[in-house]
């Protein structure tokens, strides 16, 4: 389950580009909290703490308890913008989380036990089809990641979503019930598997010199 983190926010007055620029000049980042059957609420966030959270990873699958001038709201980031030159936050959209609600998120796939995959040990290549899987998940049980175990995978094997344990209440949005998440292909030329056969092949006999007339 994704960890819940706390983040202080302040209600801001005014919307639009001019108001957003004014917030940034104060060293803060404009944001908006929406959804849950309530009106959108413009907010501002402290720039340094927000930057640390974004670049720490898993920002879009982290549940936050927003402290909005003393009022607590559970929310999850749905989008954020970065300055294309400075790579600093420009704006964040938060979705309110209400009890019993479900939402669609991208869940990272962590691949484990590569050392236990015979095909990888013999030089095969792991072709990852999905680094993340889009899923419907309960708002109170958002997974940080799902784990794909590569134990036993050999050349030309495929790992399907059905082989990956999913947290309770989580369901992929992909209509294909057993889509391929990754596959393992042999190295070009056959790799180590063909080496013994090549070594065992007898050397060709040298051609005899033609008899001189």
Automatic annotation (TrEMBL):
GO terms for molecular function: 5S rRNA binding; structural constituent of ribosome. GO terms for biological process: translation. Residues 193-206 have a biased composition (Low complexity). It comes from the Bacteria. GO terms for cellular component: cytosolic large ribosomal subunit. Keywords: Ribonucleoprotein, Ribosomal protein, RNA-binding, rRNA-binding. Pfam families: Ribosomal_L25p, Ribosomal_TL5_C. CDD domains: Ribosomal_L25_TL5_CTC. Residues 7-94 form the Large ribosomal subunit protein bL25 L25 domain. Residues 103-187 form the Large ribosomal subunit protein bL25 beta domain. InterPro entries: Rbsml_bL25/Gln-tRNA_synth_N (IPR020056), Ribosomal_bL25/Gln-tRNA_synth (IPR011035), Ribosomal_bL25_b-dom (IPR020057), Ribosomal_bL25_C (IPR037121), Ribosomal_bL25_long (IPR001021), Ribosomal_L25_dom (IPR029751), Ribosomal_uL5_bac-type (IPR020930). Residues 1-22, 174-213 are annotated as: Disordered. Transmembrane segments: none annotated. Belongs to the bacterial ribosomal protein bL25 family. CTC subfamily. This is one of the proteins that binds to the 5S RNA in the ribosome where it forms part of the central protuberance. Part of the 50S ribosomal subunit; part of the 5S rRNA/L5/L18/L25 subcomplex. Contacts the 5S rRNA. Binds to the 5S rRNA independently of L5 and L18. This is Large ribosomal subunit protein bL25. The lineage of its organism: Bacteria, Pseudomonadati, Pseudomonadota, Alphaproteobacteria, Hyphomicrobiales.
């Amino acid at each position: 389950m994704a960890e819940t983190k706390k983040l202080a926010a302040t209600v801001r007055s005014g919307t639009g580009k001019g108001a957003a620029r004014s917030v940034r000049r104060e060293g803060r980042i404009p944001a908006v909290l929406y959804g849950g059957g309530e009106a959108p609420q413009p907010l501002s966030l402290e720039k340094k703490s927000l930057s640390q959270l974004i670049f720490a990873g898993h920002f879009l699958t982290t549940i936050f308890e927003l402290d909005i001038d003393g009022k607590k709201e559970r929310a999850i980031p749905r989008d954020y913008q970065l300055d294309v030159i400075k790579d600093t936050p420009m704006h964040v959209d938060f979705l309110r989380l209400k009890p019993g609600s479900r939402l669609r998120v991208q869940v990272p796939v962590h691949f484990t036990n590569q050392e236990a995959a015979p095909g990888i040990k013999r030089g095969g290549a792991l072709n990852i089809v999905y680094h993340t899987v889009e899923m419907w998940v309960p708002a109170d049980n958002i997974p940080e990641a799902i784990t794909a175990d590569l134990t036993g995978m050999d050349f030309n094997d495929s790992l399907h979503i059905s082989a990956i344990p999913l947290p309770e209440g989580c369901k992929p949005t992909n209509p294909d019930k057993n889509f391929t998440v990754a596959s393992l292909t042999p190295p070009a030329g056959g790799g180590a598997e063909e080496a013994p056969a090549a070594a065992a092949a007898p050397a060709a006999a040298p051609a005899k010199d033609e008899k001189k007339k």
